[in-house]
Amino acid sequence: MGSNTISLRLNNDEIKLFKDYANLKGINLSEMVRQAVLEKIEDEIDLNAYIKAKKEFDNDPTTYSMEEAKTLLGL
């Protein structure tokens, strides 16, 4: 898979902060930004999954022990 380039507009303080943080982590600036964006997306996906699961549980709060679950699943 090829790579593409994106641009960010940052002020001097933000550039210094980003570069210092990337250096602290021992990665280049591009990798730091890529990791940060992917983590943000993953966090949002996880939050949405939690919200959906919580709504489902609120609608039907039935829980099962491990043994009950095995029996129900035929395991």
Your description of this structure?
By secondary structure, this protein is mainly alpha-helical. The protein has one domain. Helices cover 71% and strands 0% of the residues. It is built from 3 helices and no strands. The chain starts with 11 loop residues before the first helix and ends with a helix.
Q: Considering DSSP H and I runs of 4 or more, what fraction of the residues is helical?
A: over 70%
Basic shape: elongated
**H-E string:** HHH
Q: Uncertain spans, ≥5 residues at pLDDT below 50?
A: none
Q: Which class best fits the helix and strand makeup?
A: mainly alpha
Oligomer status: single chain
Number of domains: 1
Radius of gyration: 22 Å
